[in-house]
Design a protein that fits this description.
Layout lengths: L8 E10 L2 E10 L4 E5 L6 H9 L6 E6 L2 E2 L5 H7 E4 L11 H6 L15 H13 L15 H14 L4 E5 L7 H18 L2 E5 L3 H7 L2 E6 L2 E6 L1 H4 L2 H8 L3 E6 L2 E6 L3
Parallel strand pairs: 3-8, 3-9, 6-7, 7-8
Antiparallel strand pairs: 1-2, 1-4, 4-5, 9-10, 11-12
The structure holds adenosine-5'-triphosphate.
Length: 262
């Protein structure tokens, strides 16, 4: 008998708005223990949706269920121990070592009466450094790292939070092509090793196919497609979601998008 695991996150009839923008009637499901990507044109609402999924923004109707529980009923500490989020911003306070930055991920576990890390905190910090390959940089000042090393250290901070869901807003945006693949491969390996559910906003559709299990496409604040990335990415999808005339071909299982420039 086969059983399907309950989704990590579900949205039902979700509506949200700021200024003139609306997320409209969002119905979605994020599979447990898998990597899900949210894609779509600029301004389609990807970052806004990620903020709603994280509890940083509240929908004005509908619901977000995390492990089957209404997100609005999560006390702040429980939420911070369930779900971690890495926003797009590169901002990090000056004068922090990598280890100090990663230790911030332990904040939801620290007592308001003591700033001393417990042994468990140190174990989680070391594990996060190890999973992201940043142990060798632990005592360096964060601002002296390269862009790729900085992004791994920021991901280590979210992993130290020891949640079972990780939300990442464009984790490869500031990176060159080699570092993009390095970070995506690292996230895939972490997902495989720990079973953490990952949701990330991506612009790179071939990377979405190569590294993600599930894809949700947004257009003008609405979900217009969802499913396995390889099954979705074709000429019709590019036209429907991006108004782009292009074809998709595969070279050794890696998709290549060829725009029709005529
Ligand atoms: N805090 C905010 N207040 C008001 N409007 C906002 C806010 N954040 C985003 N918006 C608007 O909401 C719309 C969706 O923005 P969002 O950043 O979610 O899109 P996106 O799909 O992530 O875009 P991109 O791919 O360019 O990063 C945009 O029109 C944006 O200007």
């Amino acid at each position: 008998m086969s059983t399907t695991a309950a989704p990590a996150i579900e949205c039902r009839c979700l509506h949200f708005g700021h200024n003139g923008f609306r997320l409209k009637d969002i119905l979605l499901s994020v599979p447990l223990g898998k990597i899900t990507t949210i894609v779509g044109p600029n301004g389609s609402g990807k970052s806004t949706l990620l903020r709603v999924l994280s509890g940083l923004a509240s929908p004005y109707s509908g619901e977000v269920l995390v492990h089957g529980e209404d997100l609005r009923r999560f006390p702040r500490r429980k939420l911070a121990r369930t779900l971690s989020m890495l926003p797009q911003s590169k901002l990090v306070p000056d004068n922090l070592t990598v280890r100090e930055l990663v230790a911030y991920g332990r904040s939801p576990y620290q007592s308001p009466w003591s700033y001393r890390p417990y042994t468990a905190d140190i174990d989680h910090i070391n594990r996060a450094l190890q999973l992201t390959g940043t142990t060798a940089h632990a005592d360096r000042m964060f601002h002296t790292l390269s862009g790729g090393e900085q992004q791994k250290a920021r991901i280590a901070m979210t992993l130290a939070q020891n949640t079972d869901i990780l939300l990442l807003d464009e984790p490869t945006t500031f990176l060159d092509i080699a570092h993009q693949f390095e970070v995506m491969s690292m996230l895939k390996a972490i997902n495989h090793e720990t079973g953490i559910t990952i949701v990330m906003v991506l612009h790179d559709l071939p990377q979405a196919v190569a590294f993600c299990d599930h894809m949700i496409a947004l257009k003008r604040g609405a979900v217009v497609a969802a499913g396995p990335p390889r099954a979705l990415l074709d000429t019709e999808f590019l036209h429907q979601v991006y108004d782009l005339n292009a074809s998709v071909t595969y070279v050794e299982n890696y998709p290549v998008i060829i725009p029709n420039l005529n």
